[in-house]
Amino acid sequence: MLFYDKTALEMASQSIENKIISVINRKKHGTILFASDFADMGEQKTINKAFERITLSGKIIRLARGIYCKPKVDTEFGFGIIYPGVDDVAQAIAQRDKCRIVPTGDAALNKLGLSTQVPMNAVYFTDGTSRRIKIYNGRGILFKHVVPKRLDFKSELIMLVTFALQRLGQGNVSEEQLNRVKQLLANEPKERIVEDLKLVPGWIRSIILKAYE
Questions:
Q1: Which of 27, 68, 117, 174 is the right S-S partner for 31, CB 3.0 to 4.6 Å?
Q2: What is d(CA 50, CA 21) in angstroms, rounded to the nearest whole number?
Q3: How far apart are CA 3 and CA 167, in angstroms?
């Protein structure tokens, strides 16, 4: 009886693994996957074990606990597996959790091209839950809860510019960075940002308005 139960359990586990692989095979390379999304296939413990085995097979890579990716592989230049960007991982988590996020600090500077530095720990403001997630290669994502009003910008660009410049601080924005801000705002209609300016600190508002002159 014990042997039968063990065999039945192994067969059920194999069946779940095959179902997960079938789903993965239909996904594009670069797709981020969450073990929790497969909860309807069986017990989470069994699903987690299946993901561990599939990872060992090389079909997917592990990004963080319960988070995986069907990797892109560079064969042209021999770079091998290409990991998704930290921002891609953060955005996928936000989509799963149905919350808003926006990069702030060094992550915002990098996303806007105001800095070439890629932070090891990217910080995001969110209207969801505060938490820290360790991902691949020693990197991390920190979600910091803020009141939803802080994210109520009509223009995502103005919101990013605001949080990026706050990281630099008043008087610390270089001429090159000011030119980059002007370049970024060139395709953002001024009428779209008028309401957002009420949410922006005075010194940053001056920089934005000057960029439109």
A1: 27
A2: 9
A3: 62
Q: Above 80 in pLDDT, residue 9?
A: no
Query: In angstroms, what CA-CA distances link 103 with 34, 143, 169, 171, 185?
Result: 22, 9, 16, 22, 18
pTM: 0.86
The letter for the amino acid at 141 is I
Token pair recorded at residue 126 = 């969110």
Structure tokens given for 197: 């300016």
Q: To the nearest whole percent, how much of the chain has pLDDT over 90?
A: 80
Residue 127 and residue 99: Cα distance in Å, rounded? 6
DSSP state of 144: E
Quote the CA–CA distance of 161 and 139 in Å, as a whole number: 24
- The residue assigned the tokens 């670069």 is 30
* Integer Cα distance of 197 and 114 in angstroms: 20
